[in-house]
Here is the input.
Amino acid sequence: MSTHPTHAMLLAAGLGTRMRPLSSEVAKPMLPIGGRPIIDHAIERLADAGVAELVVNTHYRADRLETHLANVTPPPHVSFSREDELLETGGAVRAALPMLSDAPFFVVNGDSMWLDGPSTALGRMQAAWSEEIDVLLLLYRSFQMQGGHVTGDFALDPWGVPRRPKEHEIVPYIYAGIQIVRPSFMATFPPGRFSMNRVWDAAIEAGRLHAIVHDGLWFHLSTPEDLRDAEFVLHASVVGATT
Here is the structure.
């Protein structure tokens, strides 16, 4: 049975050190791409997917980010989970559970930038969700990455069940910064600082981690060079240029 999450969390608290000097004065999700802050693109896609309530965690350059997002015209309505100390990805989601829904919700990296394929990535994830899943990941083929080779995070079987690489194994899929999470599963982890990798590994062990592969474009925005390359690809896609 598919679900249509009405709540989402955007992870926007990171320091963005690899993006400096561009991120010296603003949080990385506030950097412009395609004429708008990176985070605005994700918010627009979440709104199109039916998300009405959005929680954003903040820490680095929080005031400017919160001021910008406070002016977002609903939907979605934006609330903030400000972190005095960084909680990492899993700890941030765990801390925000009281602000989120009892139903499954999206978690999106604040620097995620993607172009949809024949159908929307978020819609495909909604359709793939079922009661047998606690975490659903969006994956991307690592060989499609701009800027050279990127080591994969997961292998994936024909039924959409991911696994970690074995020793010395090269796997073809990288996490694309978007997931659906069951809140009751997140609540089994104690509060504090931890990575979502811990959540994924627990879901793998329980046989309740699934994934789909993105059929559009996805951009890894870690460095100024990544941002420049993504801007070039976006411009080419708009004007119909070929490479």
User: Anything to note?
Assistant: Helices lie at 38-48, 62-70, 88-96, 121-128, 183-186, 196-205, 224-239. The chain has seven helices and 13 strands. Residues 224-239 form the longest helix (16 residues). The chain has one domain: 7-239.
